[in-house]
Amino acid sequence: MNIAEGTNFIANDEISIALGRGEPVVALESTVITHGLPYPANLELARDMERVIRSSGAVPGTIALLDGQIRLGLAESELTRLASEGGMRKIGARDLGFAVHNKWSGGTTVAGSIFCAHAAGIKVFATGGIGGVHRGVGADVSADLIQLSRTPIIVVCAGAKAILDLPATVEYLETHGVPVIGYRTSDFPAFYSQNSGLKLECSAESPAEIAEIALEMGSLGLKSALLVVNPPPAESALPFEEIDAVVNEAVEEAEREGISGKDVTPYLLGKVAEKTSGASIKVNLALLKNNAKLAAEISIAYRHALKSNI
Ligand code: PSU
Ligand code: MN
């Protein structure tokens, strides 16, 4: 761990031991639990993701704030609290100082979580979709993108949601030097849909290949994340055109109601779920588990690659 003793950053025993022994650990965010999905789907999901990671042979580490402590690895009762209690904050990397100082509880975003995961020495992180460049003029840009550009960690996601401006998001990643690699695809996935029509330059066929690329980046001293985009499972994916129309309506409603800042993403996610009568939530759950599994496989491959490189 690169974290000073006696700070408000606490890893549970299972994770401390696994990290100490060099065993595979997969970090998970928690804004998807506090702000991304309704109760009880959020709790079911948090448990399922942890279960999938364990059954694939890695240790799951959900990151969240509980009463001002940054926690890595949560007990069942703590996951339940996060999923069901009101007043949970949405915490990005810049909020960590306030959150500890003011004893907040809440979910950490991709930006907040990868900062913590990297500080703890974790190499692989899984989420559903990353934040990105929002649609419209004077666009709101998620801090996830900036944090990805300065955190050396493998991030597994299903691309970004069509609530965002996807071409601008992909462009931003390029400008800021974040490599994007398609897992068995050459198309940037759009979270609910397998394809966005945006082409990728790189793809990988196996977790081992991804692990080797990340090691290569590390030995070169590159400081950015490696963003692995994993399309949602075919059985639950929705057609891009269908979801795009729903999103357009949601974006217009958000503008009309004057929603801004960190409330935009949760508002749009809620509207899309409402308008697809839950179909969006079904894809969301399926792809999160799919990403957790791939992340676990990559974390195992990374450990193998590391050993064979010594
Ligand atoms: N996108 C999703 N679901 C989510 C989020 C994003 O499809 O739950 C959450 C993630 O935690 C992400 C955060 O890091 O929202 C981004 O928020 P913002 O756009 O305010 O940066
Ligand atoms: Mn924002």
Short structural description:
The chain is α/β, with parallel strands linked by helices and 310 residues long. It has helices at residues 13-20, 31-36, 41-55, 76-84, 96-101, 110-119, 143-149, 166-175, 207-220, 240-256, 264-275, 279-309, and strands at residues 9-11, 25-28, 59-66, 69-72, 89-91, 106-108, 124-126, 154-157, 180-183, 202-204, 226-229.
Helix and strand run: EHEHHEEHEHEHEHEHEEHEHHH
The whole-number mean of residue pLDDT values reads 94
Binned strand content: 5-15%
Number of helices, where a helix is a run of at least 4 consecutive DSSP H or I residues: 12
Radius of gyration: 18 Å
What's the assembly state of these chains?
single chain
Ligands bound to this protein structure:
pseudouridine-5'-monophosphate, manganese (II) ion
By helix and strand content, what is the structural category?
A: alpha/beta
Shape assignment: globular
CATH superfamily of the largest domain: Indigoidine synthase domain
- Range of helix content: 40-55%
| DSSP summary, beta strand count | 11
- For the record, the count of structural domains works out to 2
The end-to-end span amounts to: 21 Å
- Which architecture of the largest domain does the CATH hierarchy give at level 2? 3-Layer(aba) Sandwich
